[in-house]
Amino acid sequence: MQTQVGIIGGGPSGLCLARLLSLAGIRSIILERQTREYVEARIRAGILEQGMADLMRRAKVGERMDKEGLLHDGIVLTFDGREERIDMASLTGGKQVMVTTARPS
Fold first, then answer.
1. How far is CA 28 from CA 32, 33, 102, in A?
2. pLDDT tens, residue order, the chain (105 aa)
3. Of 74, 76, 66, which is closest to residue 92 (Cα–Cα)?
4. Are 49 and 72 in contact (CB under 8 A)?
5. What does the DSSP assignment read for 44-90?
6. Backbone angles phi, psi at 83, to 5 degrees
7. β pairing state of 45-49 and 97-101
8. Following DSSP, what letter does each residue of 11-39 receive, concatenated?
C-alpha cells in the first residue's frame, strides 16, 4: 500500500483529518496504539468550538453532532447570590459551542 500521509492517533482529530484528506483524494494511514474495537467503544463527551464543528460538517461527519448536540451561545456565572449571563455569541460575532455527549452508535 502506498500512502501520502501518516496520521498518529485514531482519536476525533486524527479521524477527521483522515476523512478530509480522503475527500481531497489524498491517501492516508492512521497509526493507533489501541485496537479498533477499543477506539470504537470509548465514550467521548465534551465541548466543540465553532471551528471544529464547522470542520466536522465540511468533512461530512457532522450529521449526528447536529442531530444530538446542544448549541450554546453563552454561560451563566453565579456568585454572591446573583447570576450574570455572559453572551458569548454577541462577543464573538455569533460563534457558538456545541456540547456533545458521544456514545458508541
1. 13, 17, 25
2. 688 899 999 888 888 899 999 999 999 999 999 998 888 777 766 888 899 899 999 999 889 889 989 999 998 999 999 999 999 999 999 999 998 876 655
3. 74
4. no
5. -EEEEEHHHHHHHHHTT--HHHHHH-EEE--EEEEETTEEEEE-HHH
6. -110, 140
7. antiparallel
8. SHHHHHHHHHHHHTT--EEEE-SS-HHHH
